[in-house]
Write a structure and sequence with these properties.
Layout lengths: L3 E5 L3 E3 L8 E2 L3 E5 L2 E6 L9 E4 L3 E5 L1 E3 L20 H7 L1 H4 L5 H16 L3 E8 L9 H12 L3 E6 L21 H15 L8 E5 L4 H4 L2 H14 L3 E5 L3 H11 L3 H7 L7 E5 L5 H9 L3 E4 L1 H6 L7 H7 L2 E4 L12 H18 L18 H16 L15 E5 L14 H4 L5 E7 L2 E5 L8 H18 L1
Bound molecules: zinc ion.
The site of zinc ion has 7 residues, from loops.
């Protein structure tokens, strides 16, 4: 293996940083031992250095996906849930099929989801896996780390689960009853001891992530769980305020709004990030911002389930740390990062424009600067690494992990662009990867994943879908 690499002649390098330094003036980037050593123009090759010619290509940081459910990669477009909102969809799709996921099928689903992400330029994946029940082994956790490791990805397990059964869940579909609090905490501790790495450029991390904290735990357990996670040095994650049903439930059962409930129970802070955050009052947005809580913004899933639009740009202005997630493929039939980012770029402009009003009552045309390409890149790289707690990851700067995507711009969809560098995000579609590097190692080479037989994976997916349909 070559330990030194020089990437040369890139048309543009996006750094992942916010504001003016979002685009580097460099064209070349030197990597040594998996770490970026130098950015510059006209860097001279050193002896024995592997040379990667990035002429006609644009370089972005490897994407960081902060919320996923890999098991759902075999549950795309299930007809029973295709036109349902969140609550009936949960019942009809993920909960209805959960029994169908033995280790073999989970491994296949994870592989499909990870491959899809890799081919979009993603190098860090956080999977919110919640199929844990009483007496279940932690083999699912080991299996997920193993699959991600085999593909050369950085991986974080968001260890989900619940200590109570939700009304929505058909108890006949549960393989075992939910875990007790003691079982859950002991299992997370074991998993963290085995897989959680600290320090710069860690490859594996673990988070404490009860599935939907307002319903997955009784009120008296919220603080215990938060304190246990903090004692273990693990961050906290959960679904929150995805649909109006969250506010309805919290008002009825807890007598307050969802984010107020979290604030009262030590579930906000710089070590917490929450998936979705679509329906929020101004007061809740202030609580999230002042506590520096993070968001995994999942606009495609939120659109598909008719949840609404998370106010990510407004949350960022208030101090919320913004990151991007694709969410599970059962509610996002294109669970890849480029689709998600392209959609986010368009959606926030549409959202801002939908609120514009004619003059003189309103301000007239507005909203085309609601989000920029550079801002989206920042959310999906540095923003993601920050919420997940991966130090030394997420930006292309000296000393940082060499996680980077080199996209070709030779497809007709990019022809005619005055600023070709924005093509992969602004033009959308499936990008063509010349290389994807994680820790300096090539994990995608000329759009191919070395050693992976895509036709075989397709055949396995077809057989698994057929079996799942027959069993449902
Ligand atoms: Zn989710």
């Amino acid at each position: 293996m070559n330990h030194r690499t020089l990437l040369r002649n890139a048309q543009c390098i996006f750094t992942g940083l916010a504001g003016a330094p979002a685009r580097s003036s460099a064209t070349d980037l030197r990597i040594e031992g998996g770490v970026i050593r130098e950015l510059g123009r006209g860097l001279a090759p050193l002896e024995g250095e592997q040379l990667l010619d990035a002429s006609g290509c644009v370089v972005y940081p490897g994407w960081v996906n902060t919320h996923h459910h890999l098991f759902q990669s075999l549950l795309k477009g299930v007809p029973a849930g295709i036109d349902l909102t969140l609550s009936p969809w949960l019942q009809a799709v993920p909960f209805a099929y959960r029994r169908g996921f033995d280790e073999k099928r989970l491994r296949l689903a994870a592989r499909i989801g990870l491959v899809e992400l890799l081919r979009s330029g993603c190098t860090t994946v956080a999977d919110h896996h919640y199929l844990f029940q009483a007496g279940a082994s932690e083999d699912a956790a080991a299996l997920l780390f193993e699959e991600a490791g085999a593909l050369g990805l950085r991986f974080m397990l968001l260890r989900g689960g619940a200590t109570v059964t939700r009304k929505l869940e058909d108890s006949d579909r549960l393989v075992q009853p939910p875990e007790t609090l003691e079982q859950m905490l002991a299992a997370v501790e074991q998993t963290a001891a085995r897989f959680h790495q600290r320090g710069p450029r860690a490859r594996q991390r673990v988070a404490m992530a009860p599935t939907s904290v307002h319903v997955s735990l009784p009120r008296e357990q919220l603080k215990d769980v938060a304190r246990a996670a903090r004692a273990m040095g693990l961050p906290l994650h959960s679904h929150m305020s995805e649909s109006v049903a969250y506010a309805e439930y919290c008002r009825e059962v807890h007598g307050c709004l969802p984010i107020e409930y979290l604030a009262d129970n030590e579930w906000l802070g710089p070590d917490v990030w929450l998936a979705h955050l679509v329906h929020l009052t101004p007061g809740e947005m202030q609580l999230l911002g002042s506590s520096r809580t993070g968001i995994a913004h999942c606009p495609q899933s939120n659109a598909r389930l008719a949840d609404g639009i998370a106010p990510a740009p407004a949350l960022e202005k208030l101090g919320v740390r913004v990151s991007m997630g694709v969410d599970g493929a059962a509610s996002n039939e294109a669970a890849d990062m480029i689709s998600e980012l392209h959609f986010a770029w368009l959606l926030h402009r549409a959202h801002a424009g939908a609120q514009a009003r004619p003059r003189p009552e309103g301000q007239g045309e507005a909203g085309a600067d609601a989000v920029t390409v550079e801002q989206i890149v920042h959310w999906a790289s540095a923003g993601g690494a920050q919420v997940l707690g991966f130090e030394g990851v997420g930006t292309l700067q000296p000393g940082q992990a060499a996680d980077l995507a080199v996209y070709r711009l030779d497809d007709p969809r990019y022809f005619g662009l005055h600023d070709p560098a924005i093509g992969p995000i602004a033009s959308g579609g499936r990008p063509c990867l010349r290389w994807l590097l994680c820790d300096g190692a090539i994990v995608v080479d000329d759009d191919q994943i070395p050693g992976l037989d895509l036709r075989q994976l397709q055949a396995q997916a077809q057989a698994a879908v057929k079996a799942l349909m027959q069993a449902s």
